[in-house]
Write a sequence for this structure.
């Protein structure tokens, strides 16, 4: 169930519950509780509970007792309601409200997992009333007063705080009309019009009547109803303490230690060794699939991994097939969302291990940031390595600082090559680079929030700044957003790009004041945005980010111009290490790879203007010289980091970059709640956030593939890397470098891809990234449903053409067999004719040629005979080979989503079109493969990911 | 048929479409027919084009057009004192000399290198601050044009361009008092680049989510240009909101000769025709190869109900169709200009740094965009697309880099220089082609910049001066009445009457919508449609009708 709908419908849902009271069946209530035990609250069902004990003083609020057990956010992930007997409606319990023993509550959670509720340490049993006339039990009694309603039935939610269950028949009602000093029985009190003789409990689906010797259990809440005379007689419930305990199911195992106290189970079998014996356990093997569902699905309810393939049944799309845990389509889908493109090997791997295990393995992959001594180089290290190898005669270290004396613009290109290497991830020798596909994808996604661009001088001649910046993004891609923000704010690339490098305090003598550039954009674009948000990403208009959707039209701005002016004072005093004069902005001074350094004398102190040295940003005041570095920077960043907008702002962006352009508000809320608290009380944990994005039902659920508004248009550059990865792209070795002399090898060389794709990493036209997140294509469906597709903004008619032509030229010219077989050159002979000014990435159709030939003539020796022959059924071998090729490309490029009409049209073209046939059978086969790939990759079927 | 106002007209269409209509037409077919009947383009018989020049980043036009008068608060003294080290010197660099016989820009002898009037040892910073071309003697306007923009100054003195003072994004007129009292009806998210750009493009400062105003014109001029695939709107400035309609979308082009799809060029070979046929089939269009072997019917033509795929497929189809049309007309109509640029260079060549007398070259991208627009205008005005009736086009061009928070004195002159050259070249080309009176070009920018100085540049602000260019300078009826100053020069003092607060973020005194509406009126947007295009225009009415919100005499009458 979607949370959003869920919470909206709570009230109506509960009304329905009450009206369905009188459908009942046999009651089964477990009885495990004492103060130290817990209550198992499953995902996505409502439960009535009560407290079994009294919480210690000062720890008795909802937040103290249940809020600490329930992950996520109230109102998003869980809800607690009490019944208001005055208004006869439900009230949401606030986190600061006290919870009372004896009162019943509705509680539900939708975190996706089972949650255990327990009492705070040092909780104590509720004091008993001492033996007296009205309580003959030597151990005392539990006493319970009730609400009543004059001359009417009054329903109420109650429970019994006591360490054990008791049969309802032991309940006594003390009232003036009850002549027995120890109180009436329930039947007598019903006859006296005091209390209904039946209690009701709820099992998650139905109301169950509790009567006679059926047992009342701690932790469980019940509906009880006082009757017409109760308002005058004020009946009191009492339970003698001797009623508690015992063996309710008569299986000789005392309730307190019975793992299923309501159903006789002498053997106490408990497959999954959880708190519940199988007799009471709806999920005996603890694989989150209910026993009933497992039996219906044919999997083993007593075995978490039915097919023994090391993938638990709930994570296994084929739980009875040990060879598969995911479909090829699912494998392709997660690779499209979370890597730079599917390869056949990765598809096969995911089919075997499942999508969940793949995501976890990506989150756990080693990176360049684990060790500084291994061969897994950072972007910066690799950029320098390429530069030095490609231009050995350039004096890169004319000073101690790389590229300071040279300011060579080719370093930007070496940085681009490093990016390609880490994106493509198929380097023949640098195999570690890009092996961390998901980390690199997240770094790229982050580069589209925390935007810098080489368009700003001198970043166009100090490309090492870009590499160092990208390392910050990649290093923290699975780290904490606060650390990321701190390093970004101090990075030379950002300092240059948004001009707080060299920013100075106000000078009344010259009439100058601090630059507002970074101060504004860090708020508007990098953290909190322009207006207040709810946790689900919708506009917060009522001041409470946890309540939504809000009504009204007026957006509430997050900050004012005054906040920006205050923030601009904070962002002063920072400059490049080794700059030769504070604030100088030159391509030949300063170190663009070290964090900027702080110069207190240039930092705003408000002395000149007679100010107090304090700034107030978003209502919080701090000293401009606060923090260990006395820059005030961290105090300012902390304010932004802790703003409620940050979670939904960042979550929505990352979802849009990876999964879908129009995520449901519930999806945003689920992810943002994890950003806000990863379950261990940590805010801003990007690894947990990424996990939540990719494992969400909206990302993984098959039904979303056919949901009209779901999915996204691919970014052109990612469509491109997907093509390259599919056909095992490697660098061409031996082309001539910029110095027109040095042969360059092992470098993925494609400069300025923005000419064809209207985008390239760290090369946006402005700080607003390549496209606007709210871009709506001029299409009636998108317009009328207000659906965005940001990536379409740059995919203009001309860019579609440019992309098409770039694909064509890659397939035609830069394919290994074209060079080695058709042109008859070795790759190095070919490379020797190529230079710095060409593109140098080679794809390989060998597997496709072999597959084609195998079907055509039964071998892979390259002769491609049978092109014109037919088999015994009169079918041309060529036609069969085309079929096999299309099937293969459908998997590799489209994840098996090609429609029959598409396949039929493509087959027709590959069979019959002019220009396909060739007197040379090898060339004809290569024509067929090239044309098939071209038309798939330039189609809407490829460019849209669902 | 009754003439509906814009909004009602749309509602009427919706009600018709919502009704069930018997017959074989699908909903889309009905929609097309109904739209054509109700919202058809006016029957134009002439050709006109609008060109929107967007200066991204927020042009500091207070240093492009400088107050030179002696009045307190609006004159040079206050300007110079507030601007400090970024103040342009009030030295007249002598446009009069330039424009005298034989030494004018028309003859390509502005003077290269050190002969440039603004030249100071090649230094950008010094040239930027060196002086201005004072318009007071020639035009009676107490303003000067920055010294690095001699061509712009000349366009004004020749009555081919006018200055609109202190324009900006407004929902309704506002005063400083209202802002201080927090009672002002302000645009959304003032001072934020993207939202201020957006507001100027939606034509509604309090609605950032609606369509672009030029897009709405296209939506309402169904069938314009005899239903040409090229439509009304053509962008050389990327895909932005201005040209996006609800049912129409601009053609977005890069400057230069339009390319063709590799090995899919129209009418070239059977194999290329077969590729075209497959490409179209996979984009959802049943078709048969013109000269080849393949044919695609319902059984082997891609179809989808997925909105993403269907939207993208339409774009692919539009792409190949548009480039067929463009390349054919473009290649058949070469243009060779006899006029040259300021330094005698071929008209749309980019002058070298040496010619410019700068130590750095200009980017030149705007010049290349204008070159393409001039050619597209020529193709349109001569109906080279063979539609039979090609009447209206709206273009966008842009220049980036105006967000001069830092290093303004080094960056701004390059941008202003390119702006001046580009406007001059474009105007010269239109005059040579005979289209000058058919085209109006106007500038917009995110916002103006603070009058105050952050030490190295200026920050986001609000009101700014802008330029309208067009006509042949004769100012005959119906053509641009150039050489004028429209609007009001603002009080630029910090904390003064026109300051938003205390940093010199100047409150605009003329709404950009007023300027744009005046131009759209010239372009042929009728008064019934105008409220749909600029919904807030009504707030600027000074008289009984909407026309009272237009600028007076922007065009000659």
């Amino acid at each position: 169930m979607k949370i959003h709908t869920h919470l909206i419908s709570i009230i109506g849902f509960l009304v329905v519950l009450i009206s369905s009271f009188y459908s009942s069946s046999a009651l089964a209530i477990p009885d495990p509780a004492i103060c130290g035990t817990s209550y198992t609250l499953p995902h996505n069902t409502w439960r009535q509970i009560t407290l079994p004990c009294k919480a210690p003083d000062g720890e008795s609020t909802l937040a103290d007792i249940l809020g600490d057990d329930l992950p996520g956010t109230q109102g998003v992930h869980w809800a607690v309601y009490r019944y208001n007997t005055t208004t006869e409606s439900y009230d949401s319990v606030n986190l600061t409200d006290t919870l009372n023993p004896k009162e019943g509550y509705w509680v539900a959670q939708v975190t996706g997992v089972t949650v255990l509720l327990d009492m705070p340490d040092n909780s104590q049993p509720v004091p008993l009333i001492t033996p007296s006339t009205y309580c003959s039990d030597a151990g005392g009694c539990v006493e319970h007063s009730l609400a009543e309603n004059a001359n009417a039935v009054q329903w109420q939610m109650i429970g019994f705080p006591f360490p054990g269950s008791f049969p309802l028949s032991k309940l006594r009602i003390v009232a003036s009309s009850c002549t027995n000093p120890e109180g009436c029985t329930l039947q007598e009190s019903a006859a006296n019009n005091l209390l209904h003789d039946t209690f009701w409990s709820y099992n998650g689906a139905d109301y169950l009547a509790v009567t006679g010797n059926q047992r009342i259990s701690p932790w469980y809440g019940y509906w009880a109803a006082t009757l017409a005379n109760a308002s005058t007689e004020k009946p009191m419930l009492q339970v003698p303490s001797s009623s508690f305990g015992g063996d309710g199911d008569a299986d000789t195992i005392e309730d307190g230690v019975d793992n299923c106290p309501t159903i006789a189970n002498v053997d106490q079998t408990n497959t999954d060794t959880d708190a519940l014996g199988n007799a009471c356990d709806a999920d005996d093997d603890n694989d989150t699939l209910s026993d009933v569902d497992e039996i219906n699905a044919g999997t083993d309810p007593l075995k978490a991994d039915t097919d023994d393939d090391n993938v638990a049944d709930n994570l296994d799309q084929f739980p009875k097939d040990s060879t598969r845990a995911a479909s090829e389509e699912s494998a392709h889908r997660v690779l499209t969302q979370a890597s730079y493109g599917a390869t056949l090997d990765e598809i096969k791997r995911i089919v075997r291990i499942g999508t969940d295990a793949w995501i976890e393995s990506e989150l756990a992959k080693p990176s360049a940031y684990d060790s500084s001594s291994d061969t897994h180089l950072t972007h910066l290290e690799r950029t320098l390595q390429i530069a030095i190898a490609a231009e050995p005669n350039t004096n890169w270290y004319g000073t101690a600082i790389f590229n300071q004396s040279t300011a060579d613009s080719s370093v930007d290109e070496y940085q681009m090559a490093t990016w390609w290497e880490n994106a493509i991830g198929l380097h023949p020798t640098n195999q570690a680079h890009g092996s961390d596909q998901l980390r690199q994808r997240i770094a790229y996604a982050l580069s589209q929030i925390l935007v810098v661009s080489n368009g700003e001088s001198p970043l166009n001649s100090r490309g090492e700044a870009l590499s160092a910046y990208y390392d910050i993004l990649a290093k923290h891609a699975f780290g904490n957003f606060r650390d990321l923000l701190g390093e970004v704010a101090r990075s030379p690339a950002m300092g240059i790009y948004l001009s707080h490098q060299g920013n100075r305090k106000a000078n009344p003598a010259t009439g100058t004041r601090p630059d507002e550039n970074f101060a504004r954009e860090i708020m508007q674009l990098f953290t909190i945005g322009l207006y207040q948000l709810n946790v689900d990403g919708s506009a917060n208009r009522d001041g409470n980010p946890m309540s939504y959707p809000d009504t009204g039209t007026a957006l509430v701005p997050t900050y004012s111009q005054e906040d920006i002016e205050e923030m601009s004072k904070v962002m002063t005093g920072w400059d490049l290490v080794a700059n030769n004069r504070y604030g100088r902005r030159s391509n030949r001074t300063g170190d663009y790879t070290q964090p900027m350094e702080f110069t207190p004398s240039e930092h705003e102190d408000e002395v000149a203007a007679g100010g107090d040295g304090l700034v107030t940003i978003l209502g919080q005041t701090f000293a401009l010289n606060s923090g260990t570095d006395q820059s005030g920077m961290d105090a300012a960043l902390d304010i932004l980091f802790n703003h409620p907008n940050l979670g939904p702002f960042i979550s929505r962006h990352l979802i849009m970059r990876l999964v879908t352009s129009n995520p449901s508000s519930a999806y945003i809320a689920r992810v943002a709640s994890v950003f806000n608290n990863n379950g261990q009380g940590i805010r801003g944990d990007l690894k947990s956030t990424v996990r939540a994005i990719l494992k969400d039902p909206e990302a993984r659920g098959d039904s979303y593939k056919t949901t009209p508004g779901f999915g996204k248009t691919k970014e052109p550059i990612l469509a491109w890397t997907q093509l390259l990865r599919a056909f095992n792209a490697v660098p061409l070795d031996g082309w001539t470098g910029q110095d027109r002399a040095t042969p360059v090898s092992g470098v993925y060389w494609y400069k300025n891809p923005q000419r064809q794709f209207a985008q390239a990493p760290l090369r946006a036209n402005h700080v607003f990234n390549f496209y606007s997140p709210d871009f709506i294509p001029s299409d009636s469906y998108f317009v009328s449903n207000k659906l965005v597709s940001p990536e379409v903004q740059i995919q203009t008619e001309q860019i579609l053409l440019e992309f098409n032509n770039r694909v064509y030229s890659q397939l035609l010219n830069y394919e290994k067999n074209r060079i080695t077989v058709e042109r008859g050159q070795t790759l190095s002979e070919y490379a020797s004719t190529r230079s710095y000014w060409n593109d140098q990435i080679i794809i390989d159709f060998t597997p496709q040629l072999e597959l084609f030939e195998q079907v055509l003539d039964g071998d892979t020796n390259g002769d491609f005979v049978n092109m014109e022959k037919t088999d015994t059924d009169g079918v041309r071998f060529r036609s069969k080979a085309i079929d096999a090729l299309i099937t293969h490309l459908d998997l590799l490029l489209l994840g098996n989503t090609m429609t029959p009409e598409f396949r039929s049209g493509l087959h027709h073209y590959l069979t019959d079109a002019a220009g396909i046939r060739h007197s040379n059978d090898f060339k004809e086969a290569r024509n067929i493969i090239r044309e098939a790939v071209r038309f798939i990759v330039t189609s809407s079927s490829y460019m849209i990911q669902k | 048929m009754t003439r509906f106002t814009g909004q009602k007209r749309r509602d009427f269409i919706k009600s018709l479409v919502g009704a069930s209509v018997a017959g074989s037409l699908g909903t889309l077919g009905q929609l097309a027919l109904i739209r054509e009947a109700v919202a058809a383009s006016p029957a134009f018989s002439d050709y006109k084009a609008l060109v929107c020049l967007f200066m991204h980043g927020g042009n500091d036009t207070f240093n492009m057009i400088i107050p030179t008068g002696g009045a307190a608060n609006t004159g040079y003294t206050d300007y110079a004192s507030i601007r400090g080290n970024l103040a342009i010197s009030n030295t007249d660099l002598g446009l009069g000399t330039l424009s005298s016989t034989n030494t004018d820009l028309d003859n390509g002898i502005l003077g290269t290198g050190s002969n440039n009037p603004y030249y100071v040892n090649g230094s950008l910073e010094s040239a930027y601050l060196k002086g201005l071309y004072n318009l007071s003697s020639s035009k009676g306007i107490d303003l000067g044009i920055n010294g690095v923009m001699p061509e712009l100054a000349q366009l004004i003195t020749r009555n081919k361009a006018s200055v609109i003072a202190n324009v900006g994004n407004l929902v309704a007129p506002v005063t400083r008092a209202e802002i201080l009292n927090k009672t002002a009806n302000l645009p959304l998210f003032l001072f934020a680049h993207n939202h201020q750009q957006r507001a100027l493009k939606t034509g509604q400062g309090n609605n950032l989510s609606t369509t672009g105003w030029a897009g709405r014109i296209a939506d309402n001029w169904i069938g314009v240009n005899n239903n040409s695939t090229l439509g009304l709107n053509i962008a050389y400035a990327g895909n932005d909101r201005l040209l996006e309609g609800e049912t129409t979308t601009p053609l977005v082009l890069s400057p230069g000769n339009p390319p063709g799809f590799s090995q899919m060029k129209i009418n070239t070979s059977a194999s290329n025709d077969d590729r075209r046929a497959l490409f179209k089939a996979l984009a959802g269009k049943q078709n048969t190869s013109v000269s080849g072997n393949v044919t695609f019917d319902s059984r082997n033509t891609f179809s989808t109900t997925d909105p993403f795929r269907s939207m993208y497929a339409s774009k692919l189809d539009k792409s190949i169709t548009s480039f067929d049309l463009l390349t054919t007309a473009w290649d058949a109509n070469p243009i060779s200009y006899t006029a040259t640029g300021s330094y005698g260079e071929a008209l749309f060549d980019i002058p070298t740094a040496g010619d410019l007398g700068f130590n750095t070259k200009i980017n030149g991208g705007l010049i290349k965009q204008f070159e393409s627009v001039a050619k597209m205008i020529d193709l349109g005005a001569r109906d080279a697309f063979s539609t039979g009736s090609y009447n209206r086009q709206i273009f966008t061009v842009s220049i980036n880099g105006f967000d001069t928070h830092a290093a303004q004195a080094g960056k701004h002159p390059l941008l202003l220089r390119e702006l001046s050259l580009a406007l001059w070249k474009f105007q010269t080309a239109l005059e040579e082609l005979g289209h000058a009176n058919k085209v109006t070009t106007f500038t917009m920018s995110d916002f103006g910049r603070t009058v105050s100085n952050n030490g190295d540049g200026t920050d986001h602000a609000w009101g700014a001066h802008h330029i309208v260019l067009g006509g042949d300078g004769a100012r005959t009826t119906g053509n641009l009445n150039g050489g004028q100053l429209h609007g009001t020069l603002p009080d630029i003092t910090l904390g003064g009457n026109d300051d938003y607060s205390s940093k010199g973020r100047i409150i605009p005194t003329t709404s950009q919508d007023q300027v744009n509406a005046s131009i759209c009126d010239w372009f042929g947007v009728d008064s019934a449609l105008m409220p749909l295009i600029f919904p807030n225009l009504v707030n600027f009415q000074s008289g009984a009708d909407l026309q009272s919100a237009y600028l007076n005499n922007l065009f000659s009458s």
Q: What stands out?
A: The mean pLDDT of chain A is 90. Chain A touches chain B through 87 residues (CB under 8 Å). Residues 3-118 of chain A form one domain. Chain A has 33 helices and 25 strands.
